[in-house]
Backbone:
């Protein structure tokens, strides 16, 4: 049980560390790999026309 | 450090403050003006945007933005002004505040604010108030999240944030996150659902979330506490709880079991109107999930049994072993990289004598100093600092008691009212009493981005800045660990400035300069980031966001920040304060022949945040007029068809609105949108129509309508009736009549 807990906790810490790498403004090599991993797992988010407003 | 230069860089990241969620967006500027606000370029954040956020340029560049300080020249509320300089305004405000304090004492100053809107206060309001000697701070968070934080602390010492994305079961008590309201929560739920999570919705209406839920329990409005008892009954009697956790980390289990036995499923079914078998099935689904969470909900915040219902949700989390685990409800604690507002507020400075004067703390102490300081030594033991002002909601005066004191001068006079980023007149119950209180002030100061009905009642109105015009780091007020950068993209117009600047400048005029050494927001951000070893410039050049890696089950090392060190199923704090230490269900006011409907108010619409944005065309076009929701059977009985104008009346007041007939409504219930007024009626109707359609006129705050422990009104299910109007109300614009 404790191992399962440890594994679950470690996974979340790893995911947070990966996420933090994607939040860098000047990404290094590992950061760019993290961004690539993120893009491959989430994919591109298409533009949502509901967000558009007419100019006024 | 000098104020940062604005930039036209297309990669400027700003935290949107149009609502309270705080999505990070990208600002595009042109010729020193905000051109547009667009979605994030990080795919993990790109869906966290709604059409309010993308309307930011329409708001920030709006022709009606306040840009110069105004001084009242007509009668109070007459809406007549002269422009004066910022320096003159601040000098006069300080002078007049000194006079009030000299005559009535420091507690005669009250402050009402909404930190969601103002963002960059950095608790300088509390620091100023504590230096002056007044405990009378009120906020909309007393009705929404802040009060929940305070009550959660009584059970297990902190206010957890639900780890929705990783959860296997999500329970929504009336909460209805959707694409354009609470958008990140909506996205988290969708992500969890895609990973197989079950969703249970408990809502009188067939809400957007209920439509796609695994189980929907259409409970009667205002009965959340009873429903929780039903779940506990099943979970305890079927032994679905985490026995090891209960044995090691809780106190009061046997007493709780006795109380739970007072609520057999048949009784709960009768109270809530939900089939007993469905209650049992949903309880089993929640309790047996590998991980489960009950995210915060604004619905449970606003009921006559709110304290008990919030505690019961905490108890459910604990008994099922779902606290501080992945996919459960997680305790953040103070961010190790950022000095919390709890510290900047300097709550130690306010004397015990002045704290004891906090309005409402005698009758309803739950979120006041009186109750929360009983947790201080335990908070310090576990979290390293005694004051945890989570979501700004843990050391507040009671709003109703404050407005009563403003109106009646009992138990003592409140004669100076400062209101910042908060349309107070429409934001608390019993709007008539609020107006009476405001009309009885010697000094009212408003700090706003637009003229509002509340600001119209002020002596001075100072123009506020907006999020694209200032630097900031958002930290979720210690609800959730993470730091999000918000960069200044453009300069504020004319003399618009931040609430940080306001409190700084007032403090210097009132003799508190030594307590306010930071000259600029950037100085403050450097100070707050000092534990990280970085300045704001360094931090924001390196990251646009940073999330502290989570640590789970911290209680195994520290215990809980409660007097017993355990999860208090039976609350020692509430017991010591003279309340029932165990949760209970209390029935709200009953419907009658005269008032046959259950009215629920405080409901947010996608196009607006609370009372804001009605003057923003691109948003108002999406929601031109206020609309009550009714069930077809109720509408037919009343002879009402879609888009009829009606009056909704309660014993306290009435609102005028249109009706939308919806199959999704529960019969016998009427849903009222929050915060309606008519900026276009300024100069024609009193206070721009603030008393025509505002739900705050409906809500009573007499004792029989208040939660005992917090003094929270029963917004979710009080009696009302509908009267059909034969003619549309006079003075409405064509857009309102047509829309």
Residues:
């Amino acid at each position: 049980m404790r191992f399962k807990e440890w594994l679950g906790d470690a996974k979340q810490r790893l995911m947070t560390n990966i996420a933090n790498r994607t939040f860098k403004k000047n990404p290094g090599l590992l950061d760019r790999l993290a961004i690539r991993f993120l893009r491959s797992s989430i994919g591109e988010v298409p533009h949502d026309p509901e967000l558009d407003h007419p100019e006024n | 450090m000098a104020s940062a230069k604005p930039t036209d860089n297309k990669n400027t990241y700003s935290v949107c403050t149009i609502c309270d969620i705080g999505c990070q967006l990208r600002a595009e500027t042109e010729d020193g003006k905000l051109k547009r606000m667009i979605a994030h370029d990080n795919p993990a954040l790109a869906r966290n945007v709604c059409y309010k956020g993308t309307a930011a340029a329409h708001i920030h560049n709006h022709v009606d933005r306040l840009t110069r300080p105004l001084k009242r020249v007509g009668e109070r509320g007459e809406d007549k002004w002269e422009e004066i300089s910022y320096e003159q305004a601040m000098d006069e405000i300080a002078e007049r505040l000194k006079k009030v304090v000299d005559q009535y004492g420091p507690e005669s100053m009250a402050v009402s604010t909404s930190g969601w809107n103002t963002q960059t206060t950095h608790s300088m309001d509390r620091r100023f108030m504590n230096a002056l000697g007044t405990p009378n701070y009120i906020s909309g968070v007393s009705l929404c999240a802040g009060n929940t934080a305070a009550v959660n602390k009584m059970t297990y010492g902190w206010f957890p944030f639900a780890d929705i994305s990783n959860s296997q079961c999500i329970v929504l008590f009336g909460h209805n996150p959707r694409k354009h309201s609470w958008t990140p929560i909506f996205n988290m739920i969708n992500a969890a659902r895609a990973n197989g999570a079950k969703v249970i919705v408990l809502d009188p209406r067939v809400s957007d979330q209920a439509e796609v839920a695994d189980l929907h329990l259409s409970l009667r409005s205002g009965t959340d506490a009873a429903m929780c008892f039903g779940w506990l009954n099943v979970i305890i009697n079927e032994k679905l709880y985490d026995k090891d956790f209960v044995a090691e980390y809780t106190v009061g289990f046997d007493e709780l079991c006795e109380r739970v036995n007072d609520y057999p499923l048949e009784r709960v079914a009768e109270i809530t109107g939900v089939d007993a078998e469905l209650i049992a099935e949903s309880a089993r689904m929640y309790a047996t999930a590998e991980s489960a969470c009950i995210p915060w909900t604004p619905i449970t915040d606003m009921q006559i049994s709110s304290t008990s219902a919030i505690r019961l949700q905490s108890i459910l989390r604990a008994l099922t072993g779902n606290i501080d685990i992945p996919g459960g409800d997680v305790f953040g604690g103070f961010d190790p990289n950022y000095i919390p507002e709890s510290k900047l507020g300097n709550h130690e400075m306010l004397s015990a004598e002045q704290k004891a004067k906090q309005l409402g703390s005698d009758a309803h102490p739950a979120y006041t100093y009186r109750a929360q300081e009983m947790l201080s030594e335990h908070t310090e033991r576990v979290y390293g600092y005694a004051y945890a002002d989570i979501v700004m909601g843990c050391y507040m005066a009671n709003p109703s008691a404050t407005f009563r004191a403003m109106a009646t001068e009992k138990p003592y006079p409140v004669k100076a009212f400062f209101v910042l980023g908060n349309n107070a007149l429409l934001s608390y119950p019993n709007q008539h009493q609020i107006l009476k209180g405001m009309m009885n002030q010697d000094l009212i100061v408003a700090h706003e981005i637009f003229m509002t009905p509340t600001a119209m009642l002020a002596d001075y109105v100072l123009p506020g800045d907006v999020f694209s015009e200032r630097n900031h780091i958002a930290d979720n007020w210690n609800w959730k660990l993470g730091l999000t950068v918000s960069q200044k993209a453009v300069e504020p117009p004319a003399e618009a400035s931040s609430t940080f600047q306001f409190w700084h400048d007032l403090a210097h005029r009132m003799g508190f300069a030594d307590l306010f050494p930071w000259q600029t927001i950037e100085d403050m951000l450097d100070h707050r980031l000092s534990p990280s070893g970085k300045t704001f410039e360094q931090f924001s050049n390196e990251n646009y966001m940073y999330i502290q890696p989570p640590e789970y089950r911290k209680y195994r090392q520290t215990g809980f920040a409660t007097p017993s060190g355990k999860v208090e199923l039976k609350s020692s704090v509430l017991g010591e304060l003279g309340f029932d230490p165990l949760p209970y269900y209390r029935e709200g006011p009953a419907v009658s022949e005269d008032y046959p409907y259950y009215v629920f108010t405080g409901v947010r619409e996608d196009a607006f945040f609370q009372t804001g944005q009605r003057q923003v065309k691109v948003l108002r076009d999406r929601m031109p007029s206020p609309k009550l929701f009714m069930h077809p059977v109720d509408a037919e009985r009343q002879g009402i068809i879609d888009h009829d104008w009606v009056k909704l009346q309660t014993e306290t007041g009435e609102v005028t609105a249109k009706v939308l007939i919806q199959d999704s409504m529960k019969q016998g219930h009427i849903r009222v949108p929050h915060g309606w007024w008519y900026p276009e009626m300024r100069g024609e109707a009193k206070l721009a129509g603030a008393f025509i359609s505002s739900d705050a006129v409906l809500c009573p705050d007499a004792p029989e309508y208040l939660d005992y422990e917090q003094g929270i009104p029963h917004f979710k299910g009080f009696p009302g009736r509908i009267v059909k109007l034969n003619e549309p109300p006079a003075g409405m614009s064509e857009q309102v009549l047509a829309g």
About this structure: Chain A touches chain B at residues 5, 8-9, 11-13, 16-17, 19-20, 22-26, 35, 38-39, 42-45, 47-48, 50-54, 56 (CB under 8 Å). The first helix of chain A runs from residue 2 to 22. Residues 2-41 of chain A form one domain.
